[in-house]
């Protein structure tokens, strides 16, 4: 595991964007695993700016997102489809049929999670996975207690995650209680992982991710066993 300490959120975002940009321009074909949430927002801004400045062709890039809420349509302002469209896809010239997220409105969620897992496999697996971390140590929406063998699956969100994510909704009651997420096994299959951590509210989760014994009660600890993880963390997250 490589830990890169940076001063603040913007330095974290800029460094992450540079790393992803370099991978894009130096690869003949690239499957990017993408995350949503507050953490990667500015990374997407910087990355879009860099790609547009250099008029980078993205026809060799494919993206698969970690997760999506159950029950929200693609156009719902809090869906991760909508987040990706507004934060990144609409700003860059990536073919629409190269971007994938799980479908939280699929009529049969069990069929959908199998379809998504197979899709990742058919794309050849994720080359570079971007991750954030939840205060309770979740990655993707893999809450404490999730099996390390898990593939893409349906999850019931932890009460703390529902509360944390309520800031994006008008009321806490509007936050979906379920999501579809890549599993921990799916995430660990990525060839490289880039974990972004910013802010003092993530300090405990980060410390444990690095130092605690690997345990399903602390999902992010599994990253200790991955051969190629880079953590970019800011001063507040490391104090
Ligand atoms: C998002 C995701 C989550 C977030 C985590 C941190 O696609 O899978 O694991 O990365 O909940 O969220 P923020 O960045 O909003 O603190």
TrEMBL record:
Reaction catalyzed: alpha-D-glucosamine 6-phosphate + H2O = beta-D-fructose 6-phosphate + NH4(+)
Molecular function terms, GO-annotated: glucosamine-6-phosphate deaminase activity; identical protein binding
Entry keyword Hydrolase: yes
Residues the record marks as active site: 67, 136, 138, 143
InterPro entries from the UniProt entry: Glc/Gal-6P_isomerase (IPR006148), Glucosamine6P_isomerase (IPR004547), Glucosamine6P_isomerase_CS (IPR018321), NagB/RpiA_transferase-like (IPR037171)
Top EC group: hydrolase
EC number: 3.5.99.6
GO cellular component: cytoplasm
Signal peptide: none
Domain Glucosamine/galactosamine-6-phosphate isomerase: 21-226
Record carries keyword Hydrolase: yes
Taxonomic superkingdom: Bacteria
CDD domains, alphabetized: GlcN6P_deaminase (cd01399)
PANTHER family given in the database record: GLUCOSAMINE-6-PHOSPHATE ISOMERASE (PTHR11280)
Function of the molecule: Catalyzes the reversible isomerization-deamination of glucosamine 6-phosphate (GlcN6P) to form fructose 6-phosphate (Fru6P) and ammonium ion.
The name this protein goes by in its record: Glucosamine-6-phosphate deaminase
Name of the gene encoding the protein in the UniProt record: nagB
